[in-house]
């Protein structure tokens, strides 16, 4: 029997100092891993506790820091402003929102109503007399009425024409003392009654004559209506449009009434 030779490697001898260093290395590796895990968990924890607002779907909204040197825009875009100023609706815009007529249009309608009603009563007015009647009308209105916003002479004249009146170019005499507003004569051209054409003939006469005798007016109307013309018809149109002084007839407001 052949004896088997077993080769045994010589045992590795590790000194005490090497053991200590090896242990330190393993500890450092473990500590480094633990430190990384701890930092990661801490960072995730901070994100979960962040006060940043989130949307309805849990989406975190980014917030930009506000700088004292970059003031917030507080003006209201024109297309979103619907008349809101400092929380108060302007009257024009509020009317539009509520479906009412805006203030400028309401002023126009009130002025039109006044001018139309006045000429249906007076038929003929100078600008001066119309302004006087308008001021009397204002005096009877409650404070804050829209017509107190200020009505210019031009606006008033434009409205006179707008309601269907015409300016009668009365040929005032050169020596007249009438003021410019007294020389602007307006007449309602169509009142919608049977005397419209009578008045139009009379007004045509006064566009060529500053003052006229009654028989001139009566003869002209008689040519138009013949035997159908009634004295009361002549009286009616003269009363509507004219005043008499010294046996002559004048359009209303074109002559100073005698005080004697």
From TrEMBL:
Alphabetized Pfam families for the sequence: RPC5_C
Q: What GO cellular component is one of the record's annotations?
A: RNA polymerase III complex
Which BP terms does GO give this entry?
A: tRNA transcription by RNA polymerase III
Could you tell me the superkingdom of the organism this chain comes from?
A: Eukaryota
Give start and end of each DNA-directed RNA polymerase III subunit RPC5 C-terminal domain: 9-257
InterPro entries reported for this sequence: RNA_pol_III_Rpc5, RPC5_C
Region annotated Disordered, chain positions: 26-55
- What's this protein's name? DNA-directed RNA polymerase III subunit RPC5 C-terminal domain-containing protein
Q: Which species is listed as the source?
A: Micrurus corallinus
């Amino acid at each position: 029997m052949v004896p088997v030779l077993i080769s045994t490697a010589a045992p590795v001898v590790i000194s005490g100092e090497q053991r200590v260093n090896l242990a330190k290395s393993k500890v450092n590796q473990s500590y480094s891993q633990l430190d990384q895990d701890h930092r990661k968990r801490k960072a995730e924890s901070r994100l979960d506790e962040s006060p940043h607002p989130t949307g309805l779907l849990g989406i975190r909204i980014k917030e930009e820091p506000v700088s004292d040197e970059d003031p917030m825009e507080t003006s209201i875009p024109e297309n979103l402003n619907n008349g809101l100023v400092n929380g108060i609706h302007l009257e024009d815009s509020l009317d539009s929102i509520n479906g009412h007529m805006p203030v400028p249009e309401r002023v126009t309608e009130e002025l039109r109503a006044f001018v139309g009603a006045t000429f249906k009563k007076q038929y003929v007015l100078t600008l001066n007399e119309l302004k006087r009647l308008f001021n009397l009308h204002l005096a009877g209105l409650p404070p804050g009425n829209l017509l107190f916003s200020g009505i210019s002479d031009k606006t008033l004249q434009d409205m006179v024409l707008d309601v269907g009146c015409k300016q009668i170019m009365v040929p005032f005499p050169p020596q007249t003392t009438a003021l410019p507003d007294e020389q602007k004569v307006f007449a309602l051209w169509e009142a919608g009654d049977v005397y419209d054409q009578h008045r139009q003939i009379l007004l045509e006469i006064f566009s060529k004559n500053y003052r006229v005798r009654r028989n001139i007016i009566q003869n002209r109307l008689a040519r138009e209506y013949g035997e159908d013309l009634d004295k009361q018809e002549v009286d009616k149109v003269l009363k509507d449009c004219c005043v008499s002084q010294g046996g002559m007839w004048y359009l209303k407001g074109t002559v100073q009434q005698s005080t004697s």
